[in-house]
Amino acid sequence: MLDEQLLRYSRQIMLPQFDVGGQEKILASRVLIIGLGGLGSPVAMYLAAAGVGHLVLVDDDVVDLGNLQRQIAHNSGRIGRNKAESARETLLALNPGISVDIHTERLARESLDRELAQCNVLVDCTDNFASRYALNDAAFSHGVPLVSGAAIRMEGQVSVFDPLSAASPCYRCLYEESGELDTGCSTNGVLAPLVGIVGSIQATECLKLLAGVGSTLVGRLLLIDALTMQFRELQLKRNPACDRHSPQ
Question: CA-based, 20 to 30 A from 37: which of 60, 68, 106, 230?
Answer without folding.
Answer: 230
